[in-house]
Structure formats: C-alpha cells, structure tokens
Please model this.
Amino acid sequence: MTEDQYGADGPVGGTGQTRTRLPDSPSDPYGTPRRPARSSRGLVTVVGVVVLLIAAIAFANQSDEPPADRATDTPAASSPTAPSGVAPVDAKNGTIPSGFAQTEQGAQSAAANYAVALGSDGMFDAVRRRDIVNAVYVPDVAAANQVEVDRQYTDPGFLAAIGLDANGKAPKGLTFISRTNPVGTKTEKFTGDTATVSVWQSSLFGLAGEGSKNPVSESWFTNTFELRWADGDWRITSFTQKDGPAPVGRDQAAASAEEMAAAVSQFGGFTYAR
Model:
C-alpha cells in the first residue's frame, strides 16, 4: 500500500456512517449534492491486485476534507443487464463459483462473483484470503502479489481503524460484517479471451452489536475488472475502483445495534451472484 493510498499519516479512522444527500430543489432530486465533506481521494481510481478491493479502505480513509470539483459525464445509452435464462455454473473453486462460460455473460457473472468474494470477511482470515486470491486472479498475478495482499490485510493501523484486533478479529460481543452486493454488471470490452467488466455494487461494512464504535453502514462503488480467459475460466488480471453512483437515501430509521446484530447472524450472504 503506498503512502498516497492511505495519506501521509497512515489510515484515517472513521465510522463510515451512511450519508444522505439532499437535493437542491424538489424538481432536481439528483442536483448538486449537499453532503458532509469527504476526502477528494474518494474519487481517485485505485489500480491493481495489491490494492484492497473492499469497502474497508473507503471507510478507513474518510476525512473532513472537501471533495474535489468534478464534471458529470453523460451516461451512454445501454441495455440493462438482465437474467438470460442460462443455468448458473455448478462448479466451484473452493467456495467460489467457477467454470463460467467464455461469453460476455460468463465474464459478467465471473466479475460479479469475484467482487462478492473479494469484498467478503474471508479476506481477513489468512487461509481463506489465500484461497480467494488464488481462485479469482490469474496464477502469475496471484503468486506475485500474495505477500503484499497479506501485508495489507494484517496492517495493525488499518485493522485498528476499522475496529479489529491484530488478528483481524472483532472485539468480544461484536460481529464483523463485510459483504458486497452486486446491483448490476456492464461489459466495457470483450474480445473472446479478454474482457473488461464493470460491477456496480453496494457494500455493508462495520461491527454489529451493542456499543459498536464502527456501526455497520452502507457505501456504493463501481469496480471495473480486467479479465483474461485462463485455464478454462475467467480470471482477474487487474481492476480499478471508484465511488458511486450512490442513490439518494430514503427517510428510513437506522436499525438498532441489536437489530443489526440479529440480521447479520440470521441472514447469510450470497455465494453466487448473477
């Protein structure tokens, strides 16, 4: 992890609480945002396997710096990703789905599933993290970067900023949650044996339970994966990640610590996406 990714002083703590953006006028619900100040780094694209593909980085790096001005791109016309009726894969590489078709849909499915795996709490466990990295990246990339990935996920400052101990464990009485929920996928480029796929996703991250100083909150990201067909399946060669697009928050009351802890324990996360 470079100094720029964490800032000159290392990880910055923060609760990462969900923030609601209010419109400037009733007729323009997506008008100029009025929201709490955030670091301009939120829009910086992060690249490569050695950068953590999880919402934790965003939560750990929040600050009170004002956001940088940015232009709004006009979205290109596209068809929404829709279920195709093709049966999902039935093979697995460990706990991660595998055997995706060498098609655009197969590449999209692979990207969505890899986003789920890389955004899971399994990345904070040494054995599960190694299995995930070996399953989703092309072998040469996985081998070259495993040590750096391990270093990042065991960094004491980073773990402390998100409320975990040196072993990546939650304090007694609290439950750690890190889940990625893909909302949609889009093929940016497809050549047959390579593909570029963007995954729009929401992420739940934090500590559930009474007295949590890092309550479970939601954030939105778009991850763009560079994929290559290798050994009969799609694998990641690199990726980029950026904030949003985030929807306008509804006027809903946040769950209590007890309710959130119950939901985390009662609702299992998905092991197959799209």
User: Anything to note?
Assistant: Confidence is low (pLDDT under 50) at residues 1-54, 63-85. The radius of gyration is 19 Å.
